[in-house]
Amino acid sequence: MTTGSKAPRRLTILGSTGSIGQNTLDVIAQLGGREAFDIAAITGHDNIDLLASQARACGAALAVTANEDRYQALKEALAGTGIAAAAGRNALIEAASIPSDWVMAAIVGTAGLAPTLEAARRGADIALANKECLVSAGDLFVRAVSEGGGRLIPVDSEHSAIFQALEDDQQHAVERIILTASGGPFRTWSREEMANVTAATARAHPNWSMGLKISIGSASMFNKALEMIEAKHLFNVGPEQIEVVVHPQSVVHSMVGYTDGSVLAQLGCPDMRTAIGYALTYPSRTKLNVDRLDFAKLARLDFEAPDEVRFPALRLARTALERGGLQGAVMNAAEEIAFQAFVDERIGFLEMADIAEAVMDEMIGIGSAETMDAVFAADDEARRYATVFVKQREKAA
Ligand code: NAD
Ligand code: MG
């Protein structure tokens, strides 16, 4: 018996309304849209109009808002479409549990951990943009994906680059991985100049257009700190094998150095759709309508050493890597609280790292991550400490 046309691949997009989520839907549309893909569920938070219009455009079976207060608004926006609506944290986990072949994990922050874990456990291929899953839950998360039987495909541009530059069966010959960092908008600024910046200035990234959290994280280099820990878990390398180099043009997305002295890099324009497309079609490559590099126009690529004094987040990542265990979860949770306090203008830009460091030191004896409950408990405790430290600084100011 001959089969007719192939069944469309079934996809889920966690965080469809964000920067990565919107780029993912663009890639899906470029690669055939509803003809080629069946969208099981999409999720968002506050932007109900966008979530509903995305659901209609891509033909999702279910749309979920994480914000329970917006359930009625979502239901009304989808009335008569046949698209189911749901709301709340449990609804996110249920959406992730619906069978699909491939899940884009693009919720920002630790909020993405529980739903992504659910998708991993049921064996979906996980296209991982949410680096916080790996920073917090590390090996537990990697194990959940491999026990579920799915593949873990990095979407973060640096990790996608490394994934592409890693040669099959050559892990033994990997000497180092080199993460590139743009340096963000304050690459050349002194600490004194950075002390009084606002979130509006800090979020203006020179090369990439991204969500608020990662944009501020690029300015403080906290994003690179998370990426160092993400790299350890994805590529099973020791802390001493992870290097960071500042590369202001964001063209070399990262590199792998081998024991024979060779360095393999992946290059491209700063556009997340290349990494998203690769994660969707891996191990094949596809045709995407993105800008092409023009080397003559580029003329030069610059590299410089990172400055851990001006950007202490990099030093904190090394500390978390050396201490191991749940220190990644602690660093990440403390920084999420400090980031929100900075955005709310309750603390200054430089105080974000101070608070993360103080919480990491406070919880130095935290131990290793044996269970997911231990990860969530460490996350909670770190948030409590960070909240106290934010309040102390507010009072002192
Ligand atoms: P974003 O802020 O633009 O979007 C975040 C998404 O998460 C939105 O859909 C939002 O509705 C949802 N969300 C927010 N709070 C939530 C909550 N409490 N519960 C459930 N959902 C919630 O973020 P982004 O820039 O698209 O980044 C998403 C993830 O991808 C982050 O982990 C980020 O570090 C990573 N990443 C982003 C980029 C990029 O270019 N934007 C690059 C590499 C990695
Ligand atoms: Mg990145």
Automatic annotation (TrEMBL):
Domain DXP reductoisomerase C-terminal: 267-385
Domain 1-deoxy-D-xylulose 5-phosphate reductoisomerase N-terminal: 11-138
GO molecular function, one term: 1-deoxy-D-xylulose-5-phosphate reductoisomerase activity
One Pfam family from the record: DXPR_C
Sorted UniProt keywords: Isoprene biosynthesis, Magnesium, Manganese, Metal-binding, NADP, Oxidoreductase
The EC number(s) this enzyme carries: 1.1.1.267
UniProt domain 1-deoxy-D-xylulose 5-phosphate reductoisomerase C-terminal: residue ranges: 152-235
Transmembrane parts of this sequence: none
Cofactor(s) named in the record: Mg(2+); Mn(2+)
Catalytic function, reaction form: 2-C-methyl-D-erythritol 4-phosphate + NADP(+) = 1-deoxy-D-xylulose 5-phosphate + NADPH + H(+)
Residues given in the record as 1-deoxy-D-xylulose 5-phosphate binding sites: 131, 157-158, 182, 205, 218, 223-224, 227
Binding site for Mn(2+): 156, 158, 227
Chain sites annotated for binding NADPH: 17-20, 47, 130, 132, 211
Membrane among keywords: no
Domain of life: Bacteria
Pathway: Isoprenoid biosynthesis; isopentenyl diphosphate biosynthesis via DXP pathway; isopentenyl diphosphate from 1-deoxy-D-xylulose 5-phosphate: step 1/6
Top-level enzyme category: oxidoreductase
Coiled-coil stretches noted in the UniProt entry, renumbered to this chain: none
HAMAP family: DXP_reductoisom
Function: Catalyzes the NADPH-dependent rearrangement and reduction of 1-deoxy-D-xylulose-5-phosphate (DXP) to 2-C-methyl-D-erythritol 4-phosphate (MEP).
The family this protein is said to belong to: Belongs to the DXR family.
Listed name of the protein: 1-deoxy-D-xylulose 5-phosphate reductoisomerase
Organism listed in the record: Rhizobium calliandrae
Gene name in the database record: dxr
